[in-house]
Amino acid sequence: MGEVDRINPLPDSKIEALDRKYLEENKVDELLGGILERMLVEKPPDPIQYMADCIEHDFDSASQDSTTGLPARRKKKLEGVFDYMNKDGTGKISFQEIRQFAATTGTSMSDKELKGIFTDFDSNKDNQISLKEFLVFFGRSAKPMNNEEFDELIKELMA
Description:
With 159 residues, the protein is mainly α. It has helices at 12-25, 28-42, 47-56, 59-62, 72-85, 95-104, 111-121, 131-141, 147-158, and strands spanning 92-93, 129-130. Helix 5 (72-85) crosses helix 8 (131-141).
């Protein structure tokens, strides 16, 4: 007879059998094996986020952009925010559009504060924010957010 756990008096062999049954019934090995196979092919910049997105959503939504590190699902939502902010449709966000966006969301910030935010986005210093700059910025700043926090951020930006 196997060793007995002090908290749970079932023998270890019985616990192992119950664990194996659970894993088989829920096809956990199949799911994790599929995730690991895809990870080896895609080599995502953020493997933990990739696994979470595969489990929470699907493989396609989990694929990560090699430049920004953003999962496809997050990238698509941010592209929507970018289009929403890019009122003139030029494919670039101007300082004036940032100011208008802040005003429509009820954010009270001085031009100096807005300029500071604008400068954080505008990595090539051409006084316009491209989609790539926008995505790279959010790829860095949204990385520590879980999916629920990220979705809340998108709601706030689109309000």
